[in-house]
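For this section, I looked closely at a protein sequence along with its fold in token form, which I now present.
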Amino acid sequence: MGSERETASLSAKELVFRTLRQRIVEGIYSPGEKILDKQIASELDVSRTPVREAIQVLVAQRFLDSFPRVGTVVSTIKKEDVFMLYRPLAAIQALAVEVAIEKITAEQIAALSLLNREFHDAVSQHNTQAAMEADKEFHDVIVTIADNPYITDASVNLQMHVQRLEYIFFKHVPIFTESLLEHDLIINSFHLRNPVIGREAMSRNWHRPMNILYQLLLEQEKDHLQI
């Protein structure tokens, strides 16, 4: 009986955690917005305990900030965060390519090629949402093939933060044409079993949007100061 209650509690916590994180990533909850555990518990039809537990995890992962006498709010986005997020993610996923090259099968390479065609179709149709989802899945598959839990854990957390930045800032700034070419190079590196090509293409695939986003935030900051 105790084990069943524990399982139910963990399931509720995971539900709340995933729901809140996705809302933060997609910008449904804005930076600085206050998070009320009672309201969320009522909305998701769970007790306040799993909500509080999920909030603690999200605070630890820096999606939320907790302040005395203020409460818990969605973390703000600063231009300095861009380099702190993108650089380690680029390094980790470049390593994932190198590890995956040692393991990848012809069927998995074909699956990546299919995903990249879906990415291409979404870009051609100017469907930013679908393009971002296809791009994420492409990267997720490579990390899965690498099959290293430490790479996976670090990559998932960093990529969710990066995805949040891109949802907010890249919806109206398409940058996918270069990504298609970089994905092609990554796939080619798997065909050739060449880790140098793969690492360089993956690193460029993250550093390019990093630089674009930093400039966007810098210009936004300048505009704000001029008001």
Observations:
- The chain has two domains: 2-74, 79-226.
